[in-house]
Prior knowledge:
The chain has 12 helices and 22 strands. With 395 residues, the protein is of the alpha/beta class.
Amino acid sequence: MKKLVKNNVYWVGKTDWELQKFHGEELSTHKGSTYNAYVVREEKTVLIDTVWAPFADEYVRNIEAEIGFENIDAVICNHGEVDHSGALPALMKHIPDCPVYCTANAVKSLRGQYHEDWNFQPVKTGDSLDIGNGKQLIFVEMTMLHWPDSMATYLTGDNILFSNDAFGQHLATERLFNDEVSACDLDEEAMKYYANILTPFSTQLQRKLAEIQALNVPIDIIATSHGVLWRDRPEQIVEKYALWAADYQENQITVVYDSMWNGTRKLAESIAKGIAAADPDVAVKLFNIAKFDMNDVTTEVFKSKMLVLGSPTMANSALQSIAGLMHYLKGLKFKNKKAAAFGCYGWSGEAVKVMNGMLADAGFDVVDEGYRHQWNPDGEAIEKAVEFGQMLALK
C-alpha cells in the first residue's frame, strides 16, 4: 500500500519484518529492513527503484492496482543490486518498452543479472529528466557507494534526494520518517550500516558529500532505500556521514577474544580491568567473538581507538573465529586505530605473533609485541595481564 512522502511522491516499497541476514549471511539485521521504492506522479509518472525478488509479485500487483501499468512513463534504477532491482523482470514484462534510466555501469549489472535488454537510457551526473509541472529529476552518480553502478536522483520543486544505499539503515517499521521512530534505534542502525557496508568507501564518500554540497540545492527529505526517510533535519545524517568518513573513533577500547578452556577469557577480563584502572574516562567493552554477533562487534571496533585481540594457540595459529573476524575487518579498511594481541598457550604459542600479523595486515597500528601466558593463568599471570591493560591504556 502506497504512503505519502510529499505532494505527488509516494512510497510503494515493502517492509520485511522477518529479515535477519543480508548480503547472503554476511550482515545481521536484527530489526528487519525495508526495501524502499517510490512513485512520482506529475505530468509524467516515474517509478524509482523496486523491491527484492521474493516480493516482486506483491510489488507488481500493487503497482497495477494503485498506478496502472499504462500510466508509467519511466523507471529509475539507482542501483542494480537485487534488493532494489529484484522486481524489475516481473515489472518489465508489463511495460517492456518503458525507458529505464540508470548509469552506464548499471546497464552492465542489470544485463548481467537478468539477461534482458530493456530500453536502457544511460545517464551521468547532471543529466535530467523533465517530468512536467516545472519539475525535473536530476541524476548524480554515486560510484562505489557502494557499487560502481550506484547513483542518486534529486527531485526539484519537492527537494527530495532519493539517495539509494547512502544514509540508510536496516530497520523495519510501519513509520516512514526519522521523527516517527526511536532515535536510539535509528542512530544504532545507521552507524552499523555505515560501519559494515560503507567504511571501505569513506574516501569516495567524502568527495561525493562535497560534490552534493557544491550543487547548492535545498534538500527537504533524504529518501533512502532501506529504513526510514530523513525529513526532520535531514542534514543530520549527512553530518554524521562526514564524521564517520573521517577515520572515526570515540574514546573506547574494545577487547575481542575467543577462548578454549577459559584461560584467554581470564586474561581478557584482566586486561579490561587494567585499561579501566589506568584510564577511568575510556569506555572499555569486552566481547567473546564466538558468542556475539560479528557485525555488532565490528560496529564497536569502528567506534574504538584501539582493538585488543585475544586467542589461544591452536594448530600453530589463532582460532578460526578470530581469523574470520580479521579477514572481515581487513576488507573494511579501518584507519586510525591502534591494536595489540594476547593469549594463552600450552605448547608452541604462536597465536599472538600470528594475530599481530593479521592486525597489521588489516591496517591497525600494532603498539606492542603482545602478552602471552603458558598454561592456565595464575595470580601472577592475572596481575601481569592487568599491567598489560594499564600499559595499553597509556598508549
